Amino acid sequence: MDFGSSDVSLWKNSLSAYPTRIQSLNKPNLVSLDDFYRIELPSLINQRNPDPHITTPELSKLMQWKLSRGKWRPRLLDFVSSLDESLVKSASQKAFESLPDVSKAVSALTVLKGVGPATASAVLAAYAPGVAPFMSDEAMEAVLGNSKDYTLKQYLLFVDKLQTKSKVSFIFLLLVRLKSGVLLVICMDGSFSRTRELGH
Length: 200
What we know:
The chain is mainly α. 61% of the residues lie in helices and 8% in strands. It has helices at residues 8-16, 18-24, 30-47, 56-69, 74-81, 85-98, 102-109, 117-127, 137-144, 152-169, 192-198, and strands spanning 172-178, 181-188. The chain has a two-stranded antiparallel ribbon. A hairpin with a 2-residue loop joins strand 1 and strand 2. It is globular and about 45 Å long.
């Protein structure tokens, strides 16, 4: 599927195929970790309003999900799993409060050892996907034509391209390219509740 396409029906069809494509990868625990990230974690974070945040175990599980999708780097998981609970809570609260200033939000999270811009984007996307999309390898390649530069500067360019796309086609996109093709992870008309409904 071409990122330039504005055909909403094509994006929705790709979205509906997502669970099957994830299962077809046959990666241990990926399906359950993906369900945690897409369904459980956003709900947990939002239940904590007016002070939304994540916990160390949730960040650790998010890291497992992220690493299961790509290259396994156990040291990153070790770093994140050993983070002090109060630090994770305060950093994530500060990050969520900083939105829609994506740059400030990412910077608030990257003070945590083992959390770079890509992991920070995953945390932010679990809370506010319409503002901060996940910086996956596949999405970066589809949107920017590369998947190697995980700097804040490159992430901000990525966000800008997706937000421009959403204004043109009235949909907001978060892509992931799996072995079986390019898939839509999140497609929305701007509202978080609509995003969760489409995710099912």
